Amino acid sequence: MAHPLELPGWRHVYSGKVRDLYVPAEGDSPDRMLVVASDRVSAFDHVLEPGIPGKGVLLTTLSLWWFGRLAGADGGRSIPNHLVAPTEPIPAEVAGRSMVVRNLEMLPVECVVRGYLTGSGWAEYRAQGTVCGIPLPDGLSDGDRLPEPLFTPAYKAPMGEHDENISFEQTVELVGAERAAQLRDLSLEIYARAARAAEGHGLILADTKFEFGVDADGVLTLADEVLTSDSSRYWDAEAWRTGTTPTERMASFDKQIVRDWLAANWDKTGTPPELPDEIVERTAARYRELLQLLTAA
Ligand code: ATP
Ligand code: MG
């Protein structure tokens, strides 16, 4: 991976596959962080070359837009989130693709909500008729709408390991009964609000993943990125209604183009091949399209 940028006033502490984290250069127990979204794109757990131009800005714009909606701009109640107004300058080279956030104690659970059956949920259903242990009716197909949205948590594995789907009972073991119920209820509430908003713009929010942290006062706080095309599956509602094949029905606004190309051109051993310009451009256009559709008046 390329070296993280040196940012004046900030100290680099961590790089994930997509984002780089910094804390203020001064002080020992930082209460703030700078989260910088890069243009890196990952698929099948590999970071690919080249990146998708503009992706970091688009993901950050989407996150900020949703944080605002969920803070009450959509008419719903305000959900506490991790954003703070920067007190020191944001370095110009990361402007537009970074957020200053409160440094929270993160809970080790990825709070996934699925309104539709696909991906790892579809794989589990096909194998045993359940999703995260929850039994579902027979006869569902890839891409079908679920009878109701499901909270299907995953254990957030330490760096480098795979996240793993877990049951609600395992979530209780990890964070306690009260927190687990809070995580479930809040995740379902946010999903419902977001899915309704997306629907109004011709989009299906098929599934999404939230991460929560706890602040110094014990308040459960929405953190990380939210409802971006890296953390969610968005589909074209019209294509879903009229499509006859899974590919047509799940016309997605995320890196599916990249996944499909890679699946067809790589045997998943060794280093993945470089993405062709055409795939990079189509993916970038698709990300832009999502933001336009969602935020159109
Ligand atoms: P990868 O996505 O590559 O599997 P990752 O999820 O650890 O790894 P990123 O998503 O790139 O990496 O980086 C974001 C990291 O910051 C995550 O570990 C996330 O849990 C953490 N994080 C997000 N918001 C906060 C916050 N407010 N306080 C503390 N940590 C946070
Ligand atoms: Mg992450």
TrEMBL record:
Q: Which GO terms describe its molecular function?
A: phosphoribosylaminoimidazolesuccinocarboxamide synthase activity
Q: Which residues form the SAICAR synthetase/ADE2 N-terminal domain?
A: 13-267
Q: Which reaction does it catalyse?
A: 5-amino-1-(5-phospho-D-ribosyl)imidazole-4-carboxylate + L-aspartate + ATP = (2S)-2-[5-amino-1-(5-phospho-beta-D-ribosyl)imidazole-4-carboxamido]succinate + ADP + phosphate + 2 H(+)
Q: What class of enzyme is it?
A: ligase
- Entry keywords, A to Z: ATP-binding, Ligase, Nucleotide-binding, Purine biosynthesis
Q: What Enzyme Commission number(s) apply to this enzyme?
A: 6.3.2.6
Pathway participation: Purine metabolism; IMP biosynthesis via de novo pathway; 5-amino-1-(5-phospho-D-ribosyl)imidazole-4-carboxamide from 5-amino-1-(5-phospho-D-ribosyl)imidazole-4-carboxylate: step 1/2
**SUPFAM superfamilies noted in UniProt:** SAICAR synthase-like
What CDD domains is this protein classified in? SAICAR_synt_Sc
Fetch the InterPro entries from UniProt: SAICAR_synt/ADE2_N, SAICAR_synth, SAICAR_synthetase_CS
Concerning PANTHER family, the annotation shows: PHOSPHORIBOSYLAMINOIMIDAZOLE-SUCCINOCARBOXAMIDE SYNTHASE
Q: Which family does it belong to?
A: Belongs to the SAICAR synthetase family.
**Protein name (database record):** Phosphoribosylaminoimidazole-succinocarboxamide synthase
Give the source lineage, highest ranks first: Bacteria, Bacillati, Actinomycetota, Actinomycetes, Micrococcales
